[in-house]
Write a structure and sequence with these properties.
It comes from Neobacillus citreus. With 500 residues, the protein is of the alpha+beta class. It contains 20 helices and eleven strands.
Amino acid sequence: MEEKVERLLLKGLSILYELSSPFLKEWKILMPSLKYRNQSLVDEIDVIIQFAIKDVFQNKSLNADSFILSLLAEWQKRFSSKYDEYEALSLVTTIENMFHKLLDRNPESSFLDHQAIQAFFIRILDQALLSQDMEYRNENSAKIIIETNVLPMKWVAIVKKDKEEYVIDSVVCSDENPVDGHLLEMCKSLKAREIGHLSIAIERLIGQNSGDSPLIQIPCLNDTLLICLENEKFQVKEQQIDFIREMYLHQLKLYHLESKIDWKNTSLLFLQHLLLSRSAGDAVNAITTGLVEYMPFERCALFLYNQYEEKGIGVSGHNVSTSSVQQIREEVFKLPLIKKYLNSLTHSQPLYFSNAAEVLPEKYIHEFKLRSLVVLPIFVPTKNKLIGIAILDQGEYSDFLVSNQTLTTLIKFGHYAGELLFSIWDEALQQFGSFDTLLTPREKDVLKLIAEGASISEAAKELHLSSYTVRDYVSVIIQKLEAKNRTDAAVKAIKMKLIS
């Protein structure tokens, strides 16, 4: 099984290399439109992309993990800036979508090619999610070290190296030495060129300066454990140092493994849930229930984009009235959400808002008793297409925060939902859309004759029109239905019940 996965990842890596030239052209065009995010972050990712194409791709012996880790190492070597990890991962997803778009232009590309790209970028998420929420995990690791009582400890600090400076990541005190939480938070902003200076600052800040408290430094990969002992006369043995180091490294491995399992398990369960769908109605219900069952939300409302009318249409709700949701028909480009955040949504980036009034009309705030919410793009990566959104919250008038890991995991949920709905798109729009005004009566007359097999001249004779006029009608119909040709337009119109 692992060999098969590795082959798929290598296939994805080879596709990235093959498409590198057209990708670079698309990326240069796209970069200016990404300024709404974080320009310095976009610039740094651009540097890493150039490095990947010029240097890393040349090493044919690299596997997927080596490739990803080499890029991360280069990033750490070149840049000291700290960014929101979710923002960075969202940009990575944008890059993935660009490769899907390039693949879709090639008539010889297969669904397996798209899967190889997806597998490769999922592996990137694997590596990136390992570092998310590490502040909480590091704090928990420090608590576990204190609770072992291997040494009589006053406090434990986890220190990270940031270029030429040392930075306090977290500080935990023993139960015998309680300290106000605000003071511990202040410790996290401390930086110094020498670790010893950090220890002095911590002791002074938390008010436990004995002047002679012995300190131990324990290197652990990229981190350093700084331990202040209770008893200056206590003799520390090398075995105790090794035990603490191994315990900390073991905790890191466990947390990394849990990160992989948690997000992959929820994504897999959601995907399996969607696969039970047999109709458009089943699909929209599966999406709304799945987003609540497998993610930390209580309510969900799903909306699709009817491109024929340029309206957002409500299709389903979970723990919220579906009939109320289905009554919603909005011209999407007039909504504050779309006006302000269309760029983010079209790059499949989930968005969190502490106040729903920022982005939704007041009438919906009152009707559905909204406060904090998350907006999830329903996105089709293989077609690089946004087809709807899901709105998620934790109940009526609920104020809540959402973790970066949740937002990152939601990206894949939005992709799975998008692929499912796109596969039954005509059926979904037929069931939930409104098409009465899409075609004029005369356009319907022309299309009905074309569907019955009439030629342009035959349709013109039947309708007492010129052939040129009928051709114009057919061109407009093809454009409105986004069809490939007049035969395809006729087939779509029948599916959508525009003509019988």
